[in-house]
Design brief:
This protein is mainly beta and about 200 residues long. The protein is about 10% helix and about 40% strand. It is globular and about 50 Å long.
Length: about 200
């Protein structure tokens, strides 16, 4: 069938140049207006941090509580790339894939977004710990047969892995210590055509 291969974003190699580097503290602040890329503490932080919008700022919080704030990130045009000392780069498009809307949580109690949406696929099989963050901000443990929706972010822990089967009968395998953002999927079963866009974040 005529169906493009899903596109995936990931940490890319970063160019040399003027870079804002982090201070050695638990709370790091950068200014997006400086027009310089932002250097994160390391690749593990980039992969494991929670991304969220706070007003006009981008706030990244690591598992150990380390916080990186990029002030004015959502006002900058273009927004700065996020770099890692290992040479990785997160473009604004990739950051956007893993940053839920600022209104996240308003519908979390009722789970209205997930209930109203149509599933774009399901968990075919998995091993280890695999979770999903829904578009409404709720986090759930996944099991075989569970539905996934556009806007979901699927996360695997160390030793975890998951195979997803989508409505167009394509599959996607995600290994350990990774995150997959299901950015978009459009599929017409009548014509067997469509398009999809996924973003992958891992060390």
């Amino acid at each position: 069938m005529a169906y493009p291969t899903p596109t995936a974003g990931s940490l890319e190699s970063a160019p040399a140049g003027s870079i804002q580097s982090p201070a050695l503290s638990g709370s790091i602040v950068f200014d997006a207006a400086s027009d310089s890329p932002v250097m994160l503490p390391d690749g593990q932080f980039a992969s494991d941090a929670t991304y969220r919008q706070q007003g006009d700022d981008l706030v990244l919080t690591g598992p150990d509580g380390t916080t990186v704030t990029v002030e004015g990130y959502f006002l900058a045009d273009p927004a700065p790339d996020l770099l890692t000392p290992e040479g990785g780069r997160m473009t604004p498009a990739l950051v956007d894939s893993f940053t839920p809307p600022e209104t996240t949580g308003q519908y979390a109690q009722a789970g209205q977004i997930a209930q109203a949406a149509e599933a774009i696929g399901q968990v075919q099989d998995l091993s280890g710990q695999v979770t999903v963050v829904r578009a409404d901000g709720t986090r759930e443990q996944l099991a075989a047969g569970d539905a996934v929706f556009q806007g979901d972010v699927v996360e695997t822990a160390a030793g975890g892995a998951v195979n997803l089967l989508f409505v167009d009968e394509t599959t996607f395998a995600l290994g350990a210590d990774a995150r997959l953002a299901l950015d978009e999927m459009v599929f017409n079963p009548a014509t067997q055509t469509g398009s999809s866009s996924f973003s992958v974040l891992r060390v």
